[in-house]
Amino acid sequence: MTAHGTPVAATRPRLQIGLLPAVVVCLAAPAFFVARITWLGWVLLAVGVALAWVLAGRMPDRAGAAIEQGDARSSRAPSLFRDLALIAVGMLIVSVIPLKAELDNVAMVRFGLALGGAVAVPYLLSRFAFGDYAIRFPWRGGGRWSWFQWSWLVLVLVLGWLILPYYFITSGVYANWPVVDTPSLIARLFVGVGAVGIWDELFFICTVFALLRRHFPDWQANLLQAVVFVSFLWELGYQAWGPALTIPFALLQGFIFMRTRSLAYVVTVHLLFDAVVFLVLVHAHNPGVLDGIFLL
Length: 296
Known about the structure:
Blueprint: H1 19-33, H2 38-54, H3 65-68, H4 80-95, H5 105-129, H6 147-171, H7 183-213, H8 218-236, H9 243-260, H10 263-285
Helix pairs in contact: 1-2, 1-4, 1-8, 2-4, 4-5, 4-7, 5-7, 6-10, 7-8, 7-10, 8-9, 9-10
């Protein structure tokens, strides 16, 4: 382990048999959220977790890997079976609700309970049932932000302003979100977009990505979490050619988290991006209201 707690790549081979069950578990996300074949998602989760259990005895011994991830309080090597089970539990909880964007009270409570449970249940199981610290939320893990980090925040706003109106309006995907034509609905949309954006980082980055990094090289873990991340965003409404935006975004968020070790920073990036999404949705549903802000 380096002085900064970065995992030592040599302890995690580039290709290993454990990658197969991880891929199967992550492929449940497009089954749930893109194809919307719920039974197939269940089967993939069950097969992936079961395969990890079967292969547990064949996995390379990486004693001290927990310390390598910055957890000096546990000397047990991480279990791929347990970690994939935690990811599966989170996805199962999310899969029980439709992800169509709605702004009524019942829908917002349903979203809150399901998304909150998808983060809380794996965390509580990891912490209290398994007795480890696999899932953490390092708010300021990387220290003070550099000039490059501040510059990236500005660039995120500029890129969002340039790209998002064209994407939402020309593709028509803005219609995947409800019409917001009253102050109350606009306020609900603002809260909903921001809350889901924060949840994205808590689940996809601090849970799925963090658990996968305990077993695989960073680039593999990042690709796998992006499959789950982008699939969720697809059902949420980022369809048509949306993956051309959401795939790079998911990969960049994983990379930024690796470099900064700061939940605060990746959440800030996401909220700035979502602030533009919010304004574009208001603009698209109310022509003429924000014409002075956007080019389209």
